């Protein structure tokens, strides 16, 4: 097992290198210059500007710049943001908690909805509950998050004034009050992401459970005289978890991607909004670092999916 | 003496999009303690539905027990609440299915699965149940049983998995074992071994066996009494000897003629006689004798009234006007 993970990690290295080469080249070819702003600033004399450019090596050929970036990266130096003039790793660490909080809670919410609803619906196919759950899941899955997000802001912030619509990291309160304010501003983004993801997973859980429920071994379990609850939990849900867990792990990178949109709508100062503003400002080191983090997430969750799959299904062996 | 299991006038129908499928349409079967009874019949004649109804394992809906009784030790199982039914399953009546490859749960070890049955009915500790599971595996002659209890189903061959299923079914000492075509999915050589195992288990444990099969050869080797089913009905019932010596129903005669005779086939070119035609639709069964369309003795009267199952000789019943 450990050997398998090690092998997979070694295989991941060339893919990460490839991704970084492509990203770097694309960014180098893209129009725009991080120093546009400085160039139009009359307060900075041209010779200072030229010296600055030379010191950062901006005008060197692409491959030279790439290898400089790579060696720095390997030494743990993530670079320096042109725009905010802060170390990139500092910047990412600053932004990560908000993203993780929103994504983490929304995914927990999604699973807390999808698992019980999906299982309950599948064990009573075509019942009223199943049909209502199916319809709601279909609606939730069809509505894009930017739409539901705006709708919620309109309703709860603008019309009713119950919840704040801008996410703040600098809440000037202490104790319970701080928690309360924090909760209030997290509700809407968590609901938007959680309900969307929950809807799509409910459909998946339902169909995974339906696939298992008609298998022969479930009849065997019943013929043993087990109570229906035990048949459902141990012989249906346990088996249906194999595809569900794998899919959830595989979808995680996409969830991070989707969170970018939500962060923009609710102005959450997370890693997604960092990426967007970096792209708009041609802040190459930040773009490289953030996309690199995303690439690592993809590889990590793919590996996690494989490991979980093997752990849940004894028929898979990694030797 | 009341029979161990007494199925009386059982009718099980399925509601489908095309209409009502009369899968079992008035079936009477009695099994005494320690007796081996075999049900034979072509595919789709309602054997599995009958067996599953005894344990109430058919899906309801679409299935429904329309009429009849399933008396086990004199008590009707049909109106029994789910909870009481669970106490019967495996403890009193156990079942082995046709498909050993899919009948076990792939994510648990065979030991866990056998122990689960034991714990459900005997209230044993996990350790004790596992020990008992290993003993059961040894009983069904799985080599290295105490090691193999912690193997998963995919680590066993088809024949070995069927042994595991039999071990699981017998783990709570049931009074009746239903085996629904337990050898159909297996290689010929393995089939014989499994039948032999069933015979041996029966001798050691003394339970009654209801053996479902579509192979007449299997019947001759294992059963004492035979019930022939056709299109949801019992058409003949007799002891094995009587059935093979003087089959009364033309359908039974056809089945016996279609037994492959290895001894004859080797010496002279005897053609295997299959019964021409196929089983009628159970959606709208024909009026009169259901076998009429395929019967070589068919007469006009056969198509007007349904022939009843009547005693033609002592202990030998058939549903044919002949
Ligand atoms: N769930 C169901 N819904 C509708 N029809 C069903 C259902 N289960 C069984 N039937 C029908 O009942 C009839 C009898 O089926 P059954 O499985 O009892 O046959 P069988 O004698 O066991 O055949 P085989 O030798 O193939 O196992 C078939 O026509 C089948 O289509
Ligand atoms: S009743 Fe008639 S059709 Fe039916 S089996 Fe007997 S002879 Fe044949
Ligand atoms: Mg069958």
Strand content of chain B: 15-25%
The CATH class of chain A turns out to be: Mainly Alpha
Order of helices and strands of chain A: HHHHHHHHHHHH
Major pleated sheet of chain B: 8 strands, mixed
Pfam family, one (chain B): oligo_HPY
Membrane topology (chain B): Peripheral membrane protein
Keywords (chain B): ATP-binding, Cell membrane, Membrane, Nucleotide-binding, Transport
GO molecular function (chain B): ATP binding; ATP hydrolysis activity
Walk me through what this model shows:
Chain A: Belongs to the binding-protein-dependent transport system permease family. Chain A: It is found in: Cell membrane. The complex is a heterodimer of chains A (319) and B (322). Chain A is mainly α. Chain A has a single domain (88-312), classed as MetI-like (MetI-like fold, Orthogonal Bundle). Chain A is 77% helix and 0% strand. Chain A has helices spanning 2-29, 36-39, 46-56, 62-74, 88-123, 128-142, 145-159, 175-213, 216-223, 228-266, 271-280, 284-312. In chain A, helix 11 runs antiparallel to helix 12. Chain A is globular and about 85 Å long. The mean pLDDT of chain A is 85. Chain B has 322 residues and is an alpha/beta fold. Chain B has eleven helices and twelve strands. Chain B has an eight-stranded mixed beta sheet, sandwiched between helices. A four-stranded antiparallel beta sheet of chain B has the order 2-1-4-5, covered by helices on one side. In chain B, helix 7 links the parallel strand 7 and strand 8. The radius of gyration of chain B is 20 Å and the shape is globular. The model of chain B has no long low-confidence stretch (mean pLDDT 89). The complex binds adenosine-5'-triphosphate, iron/sulfur cluster and magnesium ion.
